[in-house]
Amino acid sequence: MRYDAHDSLVAPARATARLTYLIGGAVLGTLLFLVLSYSYAQILQLVFPSDVWARLSPSIENATSPVGVLVNLFIFAMLIIALAVALRVVHKRRFVTLVGALGPASRQFRRALVAMLVLYVVIMMLPLPEGMEPEPNLAFGTWLKFLPLALIGLFIQVFAEEVVFRGYLQSQLAARFSSPLIWIGVPSIGFALLHYDPATFGTNAWVVVLWAGAFGIAAGDLTARFGTLGPATALHFINNFGAILITAPQGQFDGLALYSYPFSVEDGAAFWAFMPIDMMILACGWLAIRLALRG
């Protein structure tokens, strides 16, 4: 079976496969994350002088400054901590069981990362639709100065989402249900709906949901196919690297982007024009990783 490797992630979940455990773990993890996030915000306000914090706050909300982006990325560390505690308390599982064997996970991550980088180099040489060419956004020296912290924060962000949706939810559901339609489908729907943000994206909110759902399916398939979070994390990392650190829409999470697109996240025509391109890149990334890992 093409998903035989998935058993290495599912096996540790079988002792607590009942849905009551999953619900309990999700509730406890969510509550812990809210508490930790509040504490994180309070600590930041103590670290920054009040006048500096007042200037930073608007840029943190939409991540329109380098510090604003970093603050938004590092909050995902609170999600990792919350999940690790909930996993231990409710499921008596070690956190590493969500990732898979660390040796294979690391090797798969590196090989998938190289495949994605090659793909993105090719994509960056292709012409964009007329009038949508990126414009300079952040000075290269400033970008380079923040890059080490940005890469750490970006990895924390994508890893947190992968351990929650592909590591935890997918493995626990797969321990209870045999059909991939459930254990890939449900986490993908949840991942998609958490990206629903009409206050930010306006009428484009459902476009973002559609793409996030497709990404969830691709990441879930890679996780089940190769038995670790390495491939899905690489797919996620390079996708977000391009969207956050290379080119971002104006006025939304563009604080650390070298370039910005000449449109905002509320521009419906631009979003729909880019949707087929984004879907094609996602499909090519999924296929490139499969070829690189021969699965």
TrEMBL record:
The keyword DNA-binding does not apply. Residues 145-241 form the CAAX prenyl protease 2/Lysostaphin resistance protein A-like domain. GO terms for biological process: CAAX-box protein maturation; proteolysis. It comes from the Bacteria. This is CAAX amino terminal protease self-immunity. InterPro entries: Rce1/LyrA-like_dom (IPR003675). Pfam families: Rce1-like (PF02517). Keywords: Hydrolase, Membrane, Protease, Transmembrane, Transmembrane helix. The lineage of its organism: Bacteria, Pseudomonadati, Pseudomonadota, Alphaproteobacteria, Rhodobacterales. The chain crosses the membrane at residues 21-47, 67-90, 111-128, 140-160, 181-199, 205-222, 229-249, 269-293. GO terms for molecular function: endopeptidase activity.
